[in-house]
Protein: Response regulator transcription factor
Amino acid sequence: MKSSQMTKVFIADDHDLFRSGLSMLLAGNGYQVVGEAKSTDELKEIAGAAEVDIFILDCQMPSEGPVAMLQWLQLKYPASKVLFLTGLVAGGLFRQLISLKASGLVSKVSDIDAVLEALACCLRGEQYISDELQSLLEEAEEVLTPKESKVFEYLLQGKSNREIAEILFNSERTINIHRANIMKKFHAHSIVELIEIANKKGYYRVP
Structure:
């Protein structure tokens, strides 16, 4: 396991005070903060080719939802860990992130010791879940499959079934099936309702 002195961390949170405070706390505990961002777009722009051991992300930031951002980071930085900090009460979202191999979930009401413990778990290759969030995971609804997650993100962007089929190199019929499964799991009867529910559950933040 790497020592904390060698661990490079990137923090993304749209609240300046929280982000700078966390950065100071981590730096004071031997971690090297190599970058900060206040949106997912800024993260993509700033991170570039930087070497990052652990990304620490807020679950609700401008530009992209946490599921899409996790998948992007896993593709772009396969060796990096992704730890989410959250003030949300969103068991379904948390289960989705854990099922997609997020490195951990930490409640924003946790103290710095919990954050440090979560980082240590990440470095050991273990998943960390705050005690405050564990019960929400156990009570959460059925999660989306990896393919449904991709279709879901494009639906939230307002893309049609045909457009999604072209992007994912699938038939429109296959996308229709995924869409129906997504609507069923979210108990939504229209795309507008799906977006409203997704926003309430923390999957997506309306611009």
Notes: The mean pLDDT is 85. The domain at 4-138 is CATH 3.40.50.2300 (Rossmann fold).
